[in-house]
Design brief:
This protein is of the alpha+beta class. It has two domains: 35 residues; 52 residues, HU Protein, Chain A. It has three helices and five strands, in the order ααβββββα. The protein has a three-stranded antiparallel β-sheet. A two-stranded antiparallel ribbon has the order 3-4. Strand 3 and strand 4 form a beta hairpin. The longest helix is centred in the first third of the chain and has 18 residues. The two termini are 18 Å apart.
Amino acid sequence: MTKSHVIAALAEKTGLTKAQISQVLDEQASLAYAEAANEFVVPGIGKLVLVNRKARMGRNPATGATIEIPAKKVVKFRISKACKDAILSV
């Protein structure tokens, strides 16, 4: 689903306007970006977490040369058990 499809579906089910739904989704995204370092939970779906990835050795696929991949921070989304069960049970 695209964002406009999500907005239309939520507007139809809740009785709110599409503009109101769009504003809620935009504010939720802004809040998620600001709070990702502290874990941002989307109830029933999962959570955004900031993870420190260790440095590791890799290989250049074009040349086969071994290279060192530096440590870095990455954002991950962890799916909740309820979400997995709901999707996989279908």
